[in-house]
């Protein structure tokens, strides 16, 4: 039978991920600082313990899914952290989106204890699955795509020692459809940060374009249709359109609830800025996108889906 897998951080993402491990027959031992988030998993048979050290004492494979860099540092190196009890030869996979410099620091600290660290941030979520369903439906190929969408919803971008990738893949493939090896530790984070910077820029571009077209007298549905058969087409225009009423099953059709929060997007853009500064890389549009999403957070959009930038751009209508 399969040996216990540790899971730390049972939030929006961690909860369904840990459930998928259970579903694939892995006994799970888990913890979260917020006891309420452990309830569902406990009812499904997971063992819940008090802190990360206890998880590390019992499991030699551990997945962490935490909000940001300081939480990861705390869970690894804190007073009751993983490193207090980690076993030699353990495999520690961090799926949080954090600064790649912190991933490298954690990898060094873990290596000193004779264990292995890999960064494996994820892309995707509920709306990404819906998009796969919708596209499969439109193309009349329901079987293939629906299978892929239900078995694994996420894409993992993995950084670390290549020899350990197969071991990481065994666990990650229970939780995601795509598990991609990116290179040395930190490169998974790099891939994730790059994707989200482009996503942020594309969403703002789509929103201001749609807004301009609407004010020029175009019907939003028609404009989206034309963009999507032309060279302006992108994920934000054809899969996750930010204008209410253009598409069904996306946050713009549901008052921007659910989806990917503006605050998380602002965090990821902040990471992109930090890495761009460190590498002296010009990212003028990424920088502007960061400022726009930060302003949105200060104006009450923090908890709304990031496509609500469309509404933010239309605030002048209130005046
Ligand atoms: P979340 O806030 O819902 O969950 C994080 C969990 O970690 C919470 O339950 C919290 O109580 C727990 N936690 C925090 N500090 C802890 C500690 N010291 N010890 C134990 N538990 C602790 O966040 P989420 O939406 O699940 O996102 C997790 C990560 O995944 C983030 O880095 C985020 O950027 C990334 N991500 C999120 C999405 C998304 O759509 N939500 C998509 C892709 C990637």
From TrEMBL:
Keyword Oxidoreductase listed: yes
6-phosphogluconate dehydrogenase NADP-binding domain boundaries: 4-127, 148-183
Gene Ontology MF terms = 3-hydroxyisobutyrate dehydrogenase activity; NAD binding; NADP binding
Domain of life, per lineage: Eukaryota
| GO biological process entries | L-valine catabolic process
* Gene3D superfamilies per record: N-(1-d-carboxylethyl)-l-norvaline Dehydrogenase, domain 2, NAD(P)-binding Rossmann-like Domain
Record family assignment: Belongs to the HIBADH-related family. 3-hydroxyisobutyrate dehydrogenase subfamily.
The protein here is known as: 3-hydroxyisobutyrate dehydrogenase
